[in-house]
What we know:
Number of helices: 7
Structural class: alpha+beta
Largest sheet: 7 strands, antiparallel
Distance between the termini: 60 Å
Radius of gyration: 27 Å
Strand order of the largest sheet: 6-5-4-1-9-8-7
Amino acid sequence: MDFDIAKEKITALVAEAISSDSDLDDLRWDVNTIAKSGRVSLSELKSLIISGWVQVVAAHPSDEPISREMELRLLELQNHFSLMRNDLNQSGAYSQVVRLVILRNVMEGQVPEVKLDFPVPFELQDERLVWAMRNVDYYKERSRTERIGASHGVELMAGEGLLLQVDESKGELVSITELVCMGVGTLGVTDKHVYFDTGNERFCIPYKSIVMFESFSDGVVLHRENAEPLGFATSDGGYLSKLLIELSHLQNQ
């Protein structure tokens, strides 16, 4: 069997096995047989099995909870082939599964407590850390004044030998409000508060003070009662928005 075809078949078989209830011993036999036929080494075979696992996770929507059946199947395949967490965290795939399981638990009314592989700079108060993100941009509303419609006086040719004089206009001053990046820091999400720390500035926001979540694919804006809005930008914007909304619902029940 051609080497490239063998690699494609192995990855596809692993992905199919995760999405079905096929016997994993049969899967092991099949991928080993294909590997021998295509002269795929043991190290390459392991990488292909990992790739199949990662592909299944990558195909799942990043802001939709993962089912218990899918979670258990991924874990079963991981254990069957003795795959380590670091092996499976290519492109953050393993962490993605953890995030989606957390989201599912919260949506079911359960508040998990996560243990992260990095320290967080927050002092929690009788609450559970649900998730945290580093390198998050945070924004505040700022207003600036801009002159709109200003023009200089000019002469335009209006016809044969005729000039049209256009007078100078100073335009109109208007106030523009926009979100301006104030810094980068660590965002923490607990069952009671949203925490943020840049190293120079830190604050925590109770869910009960948030009156609206404005969701975007690359972040979320928190509209607060009697306070200016705060925006947080991250590549996990859709997930962050949904997690905050669900935790807020639990807190306000």
